[in-house]
Amino acid sequence: MTYYQRILEAAASIKKVLPEDTKIAIILGTGLGSLGDQIEVSHTLPYQTIPHFPLSTVESHSGQLLLGKLAGKSVLAMKGRFHYYEGYNMQEVTFPVRVMKFLGIETLLVSNASGGLNPLQRVGDVMVISDHIDLFPENPLRGKHIEAFGPRFPDMSDAYSSELISRALGFAKHAGIQLHRGVYAGVQGPNLETPAEYNYLRSIGADAVGMSTVPEVIVARQMGIEVFGISAITDLGVEGKIKRITLAEVLEAAALAEPKMAMIIKALVSQID
């Protein structure tokens, strides 16, 4: 069975229980899975029940597809994503986003936990992603081109929706939420960066660094899906503020950022047509 056929089969399985008016998808990143608790869930699909879906191997990713309502809109939410560092190739990492397209998804909201590189950031802050730098060793579009996926050479000058960014910044200002705006650098992981690597990333224009998001966004944009990205700053890669950090501390910092991220995501969902 080809990759394309596996995508169609997975989409057909999900479509059996997916409301036809579902146009919005959300990817809940590290430590941010409890955002899913705010969804009025009609169906929970463990990844192992969906044909050809990879399985989450990271302890903070529960591995469930949630179908339901958020802010009055039908949504599909991934409670847990897949990472290159888990050993998956880029076709596997981005498989769910491919499936989303064939489910009729038009807007994708992506969240993640990341290390802050901008001296103005603090642990627990939130950053809306305005652009990204792809430092992964493999591109998800590499290989045989499938016409149904979109153009072979997709333009990435507007990877993140300027309209959704503007709405998010406006809502955050009105709600009194400090919302940074910056560039996200995607690296393969799973180790955290050295001080020299943090300095390098900052020197090439990054405001935050993480191990996800970029492959998913590239695939979404190739397929014509609008994207909004938001990061929880869970540790700092700023000179003089770098310290040893554990996963437990990352999750604790993500929990600080989560209420703010949830408010912004819910506000955006309510405004998406």
Protein architecture, described:
The chain has 273 residues and is an alpha/beta fold. It has one domain: 3-Layer(aba) Sandwich (Rossmann fold). The protein has 7 helices and 9 strands, in the order H-E-E-E-E-H-H-E-E-H-E-H-E-H-E-H. Strands 5-8-7-6-9 form a 5-stranded mixed β-barrel, surrounded by 4 helices. The longest helix is centred in the last third of the chain and has 25 residues. It is globular.
CATH architecture term = 3-Layer(aba) Sandwich
Total of domains: 1
Task: Provide the CATH topology.
Answer: Rossmann fold
The structural class is: alpha/beta
Strand segment tally:
9
In short:
By secondary structure, the protein is an alpha/beta fold. It has seven helices and nine strands.
Topology:
Elements lengths: L2 H13 L8 E5 L11 E7 L17 E7 L2 E7 L10 H4 L1 H8 L4 E10 L9 E9 L27 H14 L3 E8 L8 H9 L4 E3 L3 H9 L3 E11 L10 H25 L2
Helix pairs in contact: 1-3, 4-7
Annotation keywords:
single chain, about 270 residues, alpha/beta, Rossmann fold, five-stranded mixed barrel, 9 strands, about 30% helix, globular
